[in-house]
Amino acid sequence: MKIVSVIGVRPQFIKCASLSRELRIHHREILVHTGQHYDYLMNKVFFDELDIPSPDYNLEVGSSSHGLQTGEMLKRIEEVLLIEKPDLVLVYGDTNSTLAGALAATKMHIKVAHVEAGLRSHDRTMPEEINRILTDHCSDLLFCPTQTATTTLADEGINRGVYLTGDVMVDAILFAKNRSENSNILEILGLTSKEYLMVTIHRASNTDTKANLDSLVNALIQLKQPVVFPLHPRTEKQLKHFGLFDILSSRVKLIKPLGYLEFTKLLGHSQKVLTDSGGVQKEAYLLQVPCVTLRDNTEWQETVQAGWNVLVGTNEEMIVNAAHNFQPVSIPKTLFPEGACRNICDILN
Ligand code: UD1
Ligand code: UDP
Q: Residue limits of the UDP-N-acetylglucosamine 2-epimerase domain (predicted)?
Protein backbone atom coordinates (compact mmCIF):
# COMPACT_ATOMS: atom_id res chain seq x y z
CA MET A 1 0.00 0.00 0.00
CA LYS A 2 1.14 3.57 -0.63
CA ILE A 3 0.72 5.57 2.59
CA VAL A 4 1.18 9.30 3.07
CA SER A 5 1.99 10.06 6.73
CA VAL A 6 1.40 13.65 7.80
CA ILE A 7 3.45 14.97 10.72
CA GLY A 8 4.33 18.46 11.90
CA VAL A 9 5.07 18.78 15.63
CA ARG A 10 7.47 17.37 18.23
CA PRO A 11 5.30 14.54 19.64
CA GLN A 12 4.33 13.44 16.12
CA PHE A 13 7.99 13.03 15.15
CA ILE A 14 8.46 10.80 18.20
CA LYS A 15 5.35 8.70 17.47
CA CYS A 16 6.17 8.44 13.78
CA ALA A 17 9.71 7.21 14.52
CA SER A 18 8.34 4.00 16.03
CA LEU A 19 5.49 3.39 13.61
CA SER A 20 7.48 4.24 10.46
CA ARG A 21 10.06 1.61 11.33
CA GLU A 22 7.35 -1.12 11.23
CA LEU A 23 5.28 0.42 8.44
CA ARG A 24 8.14 0.49 5.96
CA ILE A 25 8.61 -3.29 6.17
CA HIS A 26 5.44 -3.91 4.13
CA HIS A 27 4.36 -0.55 2.73
CA ARG A 28 5.66 2.43 0.79
CA GLU A 29 5.53 5.46 3.07
CA ILE A 30 5.71 9.05 1.85
CA LEU A 31 6.48 11.39 4.75
CA VAL A 32 4.92 14.85 4.65
CA HIS A 33 6.15 17.39 7.23
CA THR A 34 3.84 20.38 7.46
CA GLY A 35 6.55 22.57 9.02
CA GLN A 36 4.40 23.45 12.06
CA HIS A 37 7.49 22.98 14.27
CA TYR A 38 10.72 24.15 12.64
CA ASP A 39 13.37 25.19 15.24
CA TYR A 40 16.25 22.68 15.39
CA LEU A 41 15.36 21.66 18.97
CA MET A 42 11.64 21.25 18.16
CA ASN A 43 12.23 19.42 14.90
CA LYS A 44 15.45 18.15 13.36
CA VAL A 45 16.95 16.90 16.62
CA PHE A 46 14.27 14.16 16.66
CA PHE A 47 14.93 13.11 13.07
CA ASP A 48 18.65 12.86 13.84
CA GLU A 49 18.50 10.96 17.12
CA LEU A 50 15.55 8.67 16.30
CA ASP A 51 16.65 7.89 12.72
CA ILE A 52 13.42 9.14 11.21
CA PRO A 53 13.63 9.13 7.41
CA SER A 54 13.93 12.62 5.90
CA PRO A 55 10.52 13.98 4.90
CA ASP A 56 9.69 13.57 1.21
CA TYR A 57 7.91 16.92 1.39
CA ASN A 58 8.39 19.82 3.81
CA LEU A 59 5.49 22.20 3.39
CA GLU A 60 7.16 24.90 5.55
CA VAL A 61 3.88 26.29 6.85
CA GLY A 62 5.40 27.64 10.10
CA SER A 63 3.56 29.55 12.84
CA SER A 64 0.42 31.67 12.46
CA SER A 65 -3.20 31.84 13.62
CA HIS A 66 -5.20 28.61 13.68
CA GLY A 67 -7.18 29.43 10.55
CA LEU A 68 -4.24 30.57 8.48
CA GLN A 69 -1.98 27.75 9.61
CA THR A 70 -4.57 25.00 9.10
CA GLY A 71 -5.73 26.53 5.81
CA GLU A 72 -2.20 26.71 4.38
CA MET A 73 -1.59 23.12 5.44
CA LEU A 74 -4.84 21.97 3.83
CA LYS A 75 -3.93 23.63 0.53
CA ARG A 76 -0.37 22.32 0.46
CA ILE A 77 -1.27 18.77 1.57
CA GLU A 78 -3.89 18.60 -1.17
CA GLU A 79 -1.19 19.45 -3.72
CA VAL A 80 0.94 16.56 -2.45
CA LEU A 81 -2.00 14.14 -2.50
CA LEU A 82 -2.76 15.09 -6.11
CA ILE A 83 0.81 14.16 -7.05
CA GLU A 84 1.18 11.05 -4.89
CA LYS A 85 -2.34 9.55 -5.14
CA PRO A 86 -1.87 7.38 -2.00
CA ASP A 87 -4.15 4.55 -0.85
CA LEU A 88 -4.21 5.93 2.68
CA VAL A 89 -3.33 9.06 4.66
CA LEU A 90 -2.11 8.46 8.20
CA VAL A 91 -2.35 11.20 10.85
CA TYR A 92 -1.30 11.33 14.49
CA GLY A 93 -2.86 12.89 17.57
CA ASP A 94 -4.70 16.18 17.77
CA THR A 95 -2.78 19.09 16.27
CA ASN A 96 -3.56 21.44 13.42
CA SER A 97 -1.33 19.22 11.23
CA THR A 98 -3.55 16.23 12.16
CA LEU A 99 -6.78 17.96 11.18
CA ALA A 100 -5.35 19.40 7.95
CA GLY A 101 -4.10 15.97 6.85
CA ALA A 102 -7.39 14.26 7.63
CA LEU A 103 -9.51 16.94 5.97
CA ALA A 104 -7.39 17.16 2.81
CA ALA A 105 -7.58 13.39 2.36
CA THR A 106 -11.23 12.82 3.14
CA LYS A 107 -12.33 15.57 0.73
CA MET A 108 -10.39 13.75 -2.00
CA HIS A 109 -12.03 10.42 -1.04
CA ILE A 110 -8.72 9.03 0.19
CA LYS A 111 -8.98 6.80 3.26
CA VAL A 112 -7.80 8.30 6.55
CA ALA A 113 -6.19 6.41 9.44
CA HIS A 114 -6.03 8.18 12.82
CA VAL A 115 -3.42 7.11 15.35
CA GLU A 116 -4.51 8.06 18.93
CA ALA A 117 -8.20 8.07 18.02
CA GLY A 118 -11.01 8.43 20.55
CA LEU A 119 -9.28 10.62 23.12
CA ARG A 120 -11.33 13.37 24.73
CA SER A 121 -10.68 15.96 27.42
CA HIS A 122 -14.34 17.06 27.13
CA ASP A 123 -13.09 20.65 27.02
CA ARG A 124 -14.02 22.29 23.75
CA THR A 125 -12.04 25.43 24.55
CA MET A 126 -8.89 23.40 23.77
CA PRO A 127 -7.95 23.62 20.10
CA GLU A 128 -6.77 20.01 20.37
CA GLU A 129 -10.24 18.80 21.41
CA ILE A 130 -11.77 20.28 18.26
CA ASN A 131 -9.00 18.72 16.16
CA ARG A 132 -9.57 15.30 17.76
CA ILE A 133 -13.30 15.27 17.31
CA LEU A 134 -13.23 16.41 13.69
CA THR A 135 -10.39 14.05 12.78
CA ASP A 136 -12.14 11.05 14.33
CA HIS A 137 -15.36 11.86 12.54
CA CYS A 138 -13.70 11.84 9.11
CA SER A 139 -11.41 8.85 9.67
CA ASP A 140 -11.93 5.39 8.16
CA LEU A 141 -9.51 3.56 10.44
CA LEU A 142 -9.40 4.62 14.09
CA PHE A 143 -6.49 3.25 16.11
CA CYS A 144 -7.38 3.63 19.77
CA PRO A 145 -4.77 3.55 22.55
CA THR A 146 -7.22 2.48 25.28
CA GLN A 147 -10.58 0.83 25.89
CA THR A 148 -11.90 4.20 27.11
CA ALA A 149 -11.18 5.62 23.66
CA THR A 150 -13.12 2.89 21.84
CA THR A 151 -16.06 3.42 24.21
CA THR A 152 -15.97 7.18 23.59
CA LEU A 153 -16.13 6.61 19.84
CA ALA A 154 -19.06 4.21 20.24
CA ASP A 155 -20.85 6.85 22.34
CA GLU A 156 -20.37 9.30 19.46
CA GLY A 157 -21.79 6.75 16.99
CA ILE A 158 -18.46 5.74 15.45
CA ASN A 159 -18.35 1.94 15.30
CA ARG A 160 -16.83 1.05 11.93
CA GLY A 161 -13.07 0.85 11.50
CA VAL A 162 -12.39 1.17 15.24
CA TYR A 163 -9.47 -0.90 16.60
CA LEU A 164 -8.02 -1.13 20.08
CA THR A 165 -4.33 -1.20 19.18
CA GLY A 166 -2.63 0.20 22.29
CA ASP A 167 -0.54 3.33 22.40
CA VAL A 168 2.38 4.00 20.04
CA MET A 169 4.13 6.09 22.72
CA VAL A 170 4.79 2.87 24.63
CA ASP A 171 6.93 1.68 21.72
CA ALA A 172 8.66 5.06 21.67
CA ILE A 173 9.55 5.02 25.35
CA LEU A 174 10.72 1.38 25.17
CA PHE A 175 13.04 2.40 22.32
CA ALA A 176 14.35 5.40 24.24
CA LYS A 177 14.59 4.16 27.82
CA ASN A 178 17.87 2.20 27.76
CA ARG A 179 19.48 4.38 25.08
CA SER A 180 18.72 7.49 27.14
CA GLU A 181 20.74 6.20 30.11
CA ASN A 182 23.95 7.09 28.21
CA SER A 183 23.05 10.77 28.39
CA ASN A 184 24.99 12.83 30.94
CA ILE A 185 22.30 15.51 31.16
CA LEU A 186 22.02 15.19 34.98
CA GLU A 187 25.74 15.88 35.42
CA ILE A 188 25.59 18.76 32.94
CA LEU A 189 22.71 20.35 34.89
CA GLY A 190 24.17 19.51 38.32
CA LEU A 191 21.11 17.47 39.34
CA THR A 192 20.88 14.38 41.56
CA SER A 193 18.60 11.49 40.61
CA LYS A 194 15.18 11.63 42.37
CA GLU A 195 15.96 14.93 44.11
CA TYR A 196 14.54 17.38 41.57
CA LEU A 197 11.22 18.21 39.93
CA MET A 198 10.71 18.36 36.19
CA VAL A 199 8.34 20.91 34.63
CA THR A 200 6.90 21.31 31.13
CA ILE A 201 4.25 23.87 30.18
CA HIS A 202 3.04 24.79 26.70
CA ARG A 203 -0.80 24.69 26.57
CA ALA A 204 -2.28 27.85 25.10
CA SER A 205 -4.64 28.20 28.09
CA ASN A 206 -1.65 28.26 30.46
CA THR A 207 0.79 30.37 28.44
CA ASP A 208 -1.46 32.93 26.79
CA THR A 209 -3.53 34.05 29.80
CA LYS A 210 -1.54 36.31 32.13
CA ALA A 211 -3.48 35.29 35.26
CA ASN A 212 -2.77 31.60 34.63
CA LEU A 213 0.90 32.07 33.81
CA ASP A 214 1.28 34.33 36.86
CA SER A 215 -0.22 31.68 39.07
CA LEU A 216 1.99 28.92 37.63
CA VAL A 217 5.13 31.03 38.08
CA ASN A 218 4.15 31.97 41.65
CA ALA A 219 3.72 28.30 42.49
CA LEU A 220 7.00 27.20 40.88
CA ILE A 221 9.09 29.78 42.73
CA GLN A 222 7.79 28.48 46.09
CA LEU A 223 8.90 24.88 45.59
CA LYS A 224 11.45 23.41 47.98
CA GLN A 225 13.06 20.95 45.56
CA PRO A 226 15.40 21.95 42.70
CA VAL A 227 13.29 22.48 39.57
CA VAL A 228 14.30 22.02 35.92
CA PHE A 229 12.08 23.35 33.15
CA PRO A 230 12.84 22.78 29.44
CA LEU A 231 11.04 25.70 27.81
CA HIS A 232 8.79 25.27 24.78
CA PRO A 233 9.42 28.34 22.52
CA ARG A 234 5.83 29.45 23.01
CA THR A 235 6.32 29.50 26.79
CA GLU A 236 9.64 31.32 26.62
CA LYS A 237 8.03 33.97 24.41
CA GLN A 238 5.03 34.43 26.74
CA LEU A 239 7.12 34.51 29.95
CA LYS A 240 9.11 37.37 28.42
CA HIS A 241 5.98 39.06 27.09
CA PHE A 242 4.34 39.08 30.54
CA GLY A 243 7.59 40.08 32.31
CA LEU A 244 7.80 36.79 34.25
CA PHE A 245 10.99 35.31 32.81
CA ASP A 246 13.50 36.89 35.20
CA ILE A 247 11.66 36.05 38.41
CA LEU A 248 11.17 32.46 37.28
CA SER A 249 14.76 32.04 36.16
CA SER A 250 16.00 33.30 39.53
CA ARG A 251 14.59 30.14 41.16
CA VAL A 252 14.12 27.54 38.41
CA LYS A 253 16.66 26.06 35.94
CA LEU A 254 15.16 27.24 32.65
CA ILE A 255 16.74 25.33 29.79
CA LYS A 256 16.23 24.94 26.02
CA PRO A 257 13.90 22.17 24.77
CA LEU A 258 15.63 18.79 24.95
CA GLY A 259 16.00 15.96 22.47
CA TYR A 260 13.92 12.87 23.24
CA LEU A 261 16.73 10.81 24.77
CA GLU A 262 17.90 13.58 27.10
CA PHE A 263 14.30 14.37 28.00
CA THR A 264 13.55 10.72 28.79
CA LYS A 265 16.63 10.50 31.03
CA LEU A 266 15.75 13.70 32.88
CA LEU A 267 12.11 12.69 33.29
CA GLY A 268 12.91 9.13 34.40
CA HIS A 269 15.27 10.36 37.13
CA SER A 270 13.02 13.13 38.41
CA GLN A 271 11.22 12.88 41.74
CA LYS A 272 7.98 14.10 40.19
CA VAL A 273 6.86 15.92 37.05
CA LEU A 274 4.57 18.97 36.80
CA THR A 275 3.19 19.22 33.28
CA ASP A 276 0.34 20.22 30.99
CA SER A 277 1.57 17.95 28.18
CA GLY A 278 -0.50 15.02 26.99
CA GLY A 279 2.48 12.83 26.11
CA VAL A 280 4.42 13.57 29.28
CA GLN A 281 1.51 12.46 31.52
CA LYS A 282 1.70 9.05 29.90
CA GLU A 283 5.48 8.86 29.87
CA ALA A 284 5.52 9.72 33.57
CA TYR A 285 3.30 6.72 34.26
CA LEU A 286 5.41 4.47 32.01
CA LEU A 287 8.62 5.59 33.76
CA GLN A 288 6.92 5.40 37.19
CA VAL A 289 7.35 9.07 37.94
CA PRO A 290 4.39 10.63 39.83
CA CYS A 291 2.66 13.27 37.72
CA VAL A 292 1.03 16.57 38.73
CA THR A 293 -1.03 17.84 35.81
CA LEU A 294 -1.36 21.61 35.44
CA ARG A 295 -4.80 21.36 33.85
CA ASP A 296 -8.40 20.90 35.01
CA ASN A 297 -8.99 17.94 32.71
CA THR A 298 -7.07 15.28 30.83
CA GLU A 299 -7.59 12.98 27.87
CA TRP A 300 -5.58 10.36 29.80
CA GLN A 301 -8.14 9.78 32.59
CA GLU A 302 -6.79 6.27 33.23
CA THR A 303 -3.61 7.68 34.79
CA VAL A 304 -5.70 9.76 37.24
CA GLN A 305 -8.04 6.87 38.09
CA ALA A 306 -5.00 4.69 38.74
CA GLY A 307 -3.78 7.24 41.30
CA TRP A 308 -0.61 8.06 39.37
CA ASN A 309 -1.62 11.50 38.15
CA VAL A 310 -3.36 14.38 39.94
CA LEU A 311 -5.13 17.32 38.27
CA VAL A 312 -4.40 20.66 39.93
CA GLY A 313 -5.13 23.22 37.19
CA THR A 314 -3.42 26.55 37.77
CA ASN A 315 -4.33 26.84 41.46
CA GLU A 316 -1.17 28.02 43.23
CA GLU A 317 -1.87 26.33 46.55
CA MET A 318 -2.87 23.02 44.97
CA ILE A 319 0.25 22.99 42.77
CA VAL A 320 2.60 23.62 45.70
CA ASN A 321 0.82 21.07 47.88
CA ALA A 322 0.90 18.39 45.16
CA ALA A 323 4.54 19.11 44.29
CA HIS A 324 5.53 18.61 47.93
CA ASN A 325 3.12 15.92 49.07
CA PHE A 326 1.45 13.96 46.23
CA GLN A 327 2.50 10.34 46.45
CA PRO A 328 0.82 7.49 44.53
CA VAL A 329 -0.13 4.66 46.86
CA SER A 330 1.15 1.87 44.63
CA ILE A 331 2.36 1.30 41.09
CA PRO A 332 -0.80 0.68 39.06
CA LYS A 333 -1.35 -2.25 36.75
CA THR A 334 -0.37 -1.90 33.08
CA LEU A 335 -2.62 0.76 31.60
CA PHE A 336 -0.99 0.90 28.19
CA PRO A 337 0.11 -2.50 26.89
CA GLU A 338 2.99 -2.82 24.40
CA GLY A 339 2.75 -3.60 20.71
CA ALA A 340 0.68 -0.76 19.22
CA CYS A 341 2.93 -0.26 16.19
CA ARG A 342 2.88 -3.96 15.37
CA ASN A 343 -0.90 -4.12 15.90
CA ILE A 344 -1.48 -1.15 13.58
CA CYS A 345 0.71 -2.68 10.89
CA ASP A 346 -1.08 -6.04 11.19
CA ILE A 347 -4.39 -4.26 10.52
CA LEU A 348 -2.95 -2.41 7.52
CA ASN A 349 -1.25 -5.48 5.99
C1 UD1 B 1 1.28 22.44 19.06
C2 UD1 B 1 -0.07 21.76 19.09
C3 UD1 B 1 -0.26 21.10 20.46
C4 UD1 B 1 0.90 20.19 20.79
C5 UD1 B 1 2.22 20.93 20.66
C6 UD1 B 1 3.37 19.97 20.82
C7 UD1 B 1 -1.91 22.77 17.78
C8 UD1 B 1 -3.10 23.61 17.84
N9 UD1 B 1 -1.17 22.70 18.90
O10 UD1 B 1 1.25 23.47 20.04
O11 UD1 B 1 -1.45 20.33 20.45
O12 UD1 B 1 0.76 19.74 22.11
O13 UD1 B 1 2.31 21.51 19.34
O14 UD1 B 1 4.52 20.63 21.24
O15 UD1 B 1 -1.64 22.18 16.78
N16 UD1 B 1 7.32 28.18 17.90
C17 UD1 B 1 8.64 28.43 17.68
N18 UD1 B 1 9.38 27.47 17.04
C19 UD1 B 1 8.85 26.30 16.61
C20 UD1 B 1 7.48 26.07 16.83
C21 UD1 B 1 6.73 27.01 17.48
O22 UD1 B 1 9.17 29.48 18.05
O23 UD1 B 1 9.58 25.47 16.04
C24 UD1 B 1 6.53 29.21 18.64
C25 UD1 B 1 5.88 30.23 17.73
O26 UD1 B 1 5.91 31.47 18.38
C27 UD1 B 1 4.45 29.73 17.65
C28 UD1 B 1 4.23 29.10 19.02
O29 UD1 B 1 5.49 28.54 19.37
O30 UD1 B 1 3.53 30.75 17.39
C31 UD1 B 1 3.17 28.02 19.05
O32 UD1 B 1 3.44 27.01 18.07
P33 UD1 B 1 2.25 26.13 17.46
O34 UD1 B 1 2.82 25.07 16.60
O35 UD1 B 1 1.22 27.01 16.88
O36 UD1 B 1 1.57 25.50 18.74
P37 UD1 B 1 2.22 24.69 19.95
O38 UD1 B 1 1.99 25.48 21.18
O39 UD1 B 1 3.61 24.28 19.62
N1 UDP C 1 9.72 16.18 24.81
C2 UDP C 1 11.05 16.26 24.41
N3 UDP C 1 11.77 17.36 24.80
C4 UDP C 1 11.25 18.36 25.57
C5 UDP C 1 9.90 18.27 25.97
C6 UDP C 1 9.16 17.17 25.57
O7 UDP C 1 11.55 15.38 23.74
O8 UDP C 1 11.98 19.32 25.89
C9 UDP C 1 8.92 15.04 24.36
C10 UDP C 1 8.25 14.26 25.47
O11 UDP C 1 9.07 13.21 25.89
C12 UDP C 1 6.98 13.75 24.80
C13 UDP C 1 6.67 14.78 23.76
O14 UDP C 1 7.86 15.55 23.58
O15 UDP C 1 7.22 12.53 24.15
C16 UDP C 1 5.56 15.65 24.26
O17 UDP C 1 5.46 16.77 23.49
P18 UDP C 1 4.63 18.03 23.94
O19 UDP C 1 4.55 18.08 25.41
O20 UDP C 1 5.24 19.18 23.23
O21 UDP C 1 3.21 17.77 23.27
P22 UDP C 1 1.88 16.99 23.71
O23 UDP C 1 2.24 15.60 24.05
O24 UDP C 1 1.28 17.75 24.84
O25 UDP C 1 1.04 17.09 22.49
A: 28-327
Question: Is residue 109 flagged as an active site residue?
Answer: no
Catalytic residue among 37, 202, 232, 269: 202
Go through the chain and tell me how many residues it has. 349
- List Cβ neighbours of 288 (8 Å cut-off, separation of 6 or more): 331
Mean pLDDT for the chain? 97
| Mean pLDDT confidence for 212-232 | 98
Q: State if residue 202 touches ligand 1 by the CB under 6 angstroms criterion.
A: yes
Task: Report strand pairing: 88-92 vs 111-115.
Answer: parallel
Which domains, ranges and CATH numbers included, belong to the chain?
2-164 (3.40.50.2000), 176-325 (3.40.50.2000)
Check whether 330 has a pLDDT greater than 90. Answer: no
Q: Report ipTM (2 d.p.).
A: 0.99
**Using CA positions, which residue lies closest to atom 3 of ligand 1?**
95
